[in-house]
Design goal:
- By secondary structure, the chain is mainly α.
- About 70% of the residues lie in helices and about 0% in strands.
- It is built from twelve helices and no strands.
- The protein has helices at about 5-30, 35-40, 55-60, 70-95, 105-130, 135-170, 175-180, 180-200, 225-260, 265-300, 305-330, 335-345.
- Helix 4 (about 70-95) packs antiparallel against helix 5, helix 5 (about 105-130) runs parallel beside helix 8 and helix 5 packs antiparallel against helix 11.
- The radius of gyration is 30 Å and the shape is elongated.
């Protein structure tokens, strides 16, 4: 039977009207996207202000957008690469030279290993920021932990070298019997375990991933914990300064005693002592210029400070690991001799192998 065309058109129009009403009802019941909801699922804040910083690119990646690579991060990565290569050379010389097994060279090796890990940590941090998008919380915390471990071990190794130099002058007669190889290895093992514990702190809860307002410039470390680390560093620096002052006093006293006993070499001893004092001034001055501004900044600043301040102070601190091999390794006559033999198979005629005296601090 044929249907009435007018009735069929009216029924079709009523069906379309009901479908449109259902679509409108479904659209009104669906929640609107919220910027706070989209950002709360990310562990990275929208701004960046870290010393081992989460850059704008990492924040943009967490938010789903793209970002350019920061020139500061490129500089830190390049510095880390140079630091790793330079300290790897020091470790290779110490490892392949059997004569370099004294406690002093173990301490230099510990410093080189710490700086090598610091350089690798900077490269790993760059990789995590720009190649893992978005970076997972565990990976980011592990990268931060590697940097904390490495730089803590570097500073502690510098303190150990300072203590060793002080004991070599203060107990000159019994130093070689007391400071045995086994004792030095045990002390270095304890030091590295302590520094490893410091590096594990971000993974154990010393982080601000759940509360971005508590972040410090040492992200993801909280501001309170960063202040503890900075205060500890300042105490270690004060201890190093006190030890170097004692070294200067002992060296000057030894030089005076030798000058009294041997009048004809008094001028040479004075020159040697002045050279030693200038060396100590250079060591302390370099360490203070590299680390003190960043330590004080970490003590007072928080994540609301502009990122450029953090970068400009963190870069000199990382450069200290680039200078350490020059001060503590490449200036040593035994290491210089090994480098000459490894590079050209000979020792230049101008090379001086004069033994160290108590004035050569």
């Amino acid at each position: 039977m044929l249907h009435n065309p007018a009735a069929a058109a009216a029924a079709m129009e009523e069906q379309l009207r009901q479908q449109q009403l259902l679509v409108l009802l479904n659209a009104s019941s669906r929640p609107f996207p919220s910027s706070s909801n989209s950002s709360s699922s990310s562990i990275w804040p929208p701004n960046s202000s870290a010393s081992e910083p989460v850059t704008a690119a990492a924040a943009a990646a967490a938010g789903g957008g793209g970002g350019a690579v920061s020139p500061w991060d490129i500089a830190l990565c390049a510095t880390g690469t140079a630091v790793a290569c330079e300290n790897a050379l020091v470790l290779a010389v110490l490892f392949y030279t059997p004569s370099l097994r004294a406690p002093m060279f173990l301490l230099i090796g510990s410093l080189a290993l710490a700086d090598l890990l610091a350089g690798l940590g900077l490269v790993v941090n760059f990789t995590v920021q720009y190649l893992l998008q978005p970076p997972s919380a565990a990976v980011a915390l592990s990268a931060a932990g590697l940097l904390l471990t490495a730089f803590s071990a570097s500073v502690c190794s510098l303190l150990a070298i300072t203590v060793d130099r002080y004991l070599s002058l203060y107990n000159a007669l019994t130093y070689h019997t007391e400071r045995t190889l086994t004792f030095t290895c045990a002390m270095l093992l304890l030091m590295w375990l302590l520094c490893l514990g410091v590096g594990l702190l971000p993974l154990l809860g010393w982080n601000c991933l759940r509360d971005q307002a508590t972040c410090s410039v040492l992200r993801p470390v909280t501001k309170d914990n960063a202040a503890v680390l900075a205060a500890t560093f300042l105490l270690l620096f004060a201890l190093m300064l006190q030890l170097y002052l004692q070294i200067c006093k002992i060296a000057f006293r030894h030089a005076q005693q030798i000058a009294v006993q041997h009048q004809f070499i008094a001028t040479a001893q004075v020159t040697s002592t002045r050279k030693g004092l200038s060396t100590l001034s250079f060591i302390l001055g370099t360490f203070a210029l590299c680390w003190m501004p960043f330590a004080i900044y970490s003590l007072v600043a928080d994540s609301s400070y502009p990122a450029v301040y953090t970068y400009s102070l963190a870069l000199p601190a990382t450069c200290n690991s680039l200078i350490n091999p020059v001060i503590y390794a490449f200036r040593n006559p035994d290491i210089q001799k090994s480098l000459w033999l490894a590079c050209c198979g000979c020792i230049p005629s101008t090379f001086s192998s004069r033994p160290r005296t108590s004035s050569d601090v």
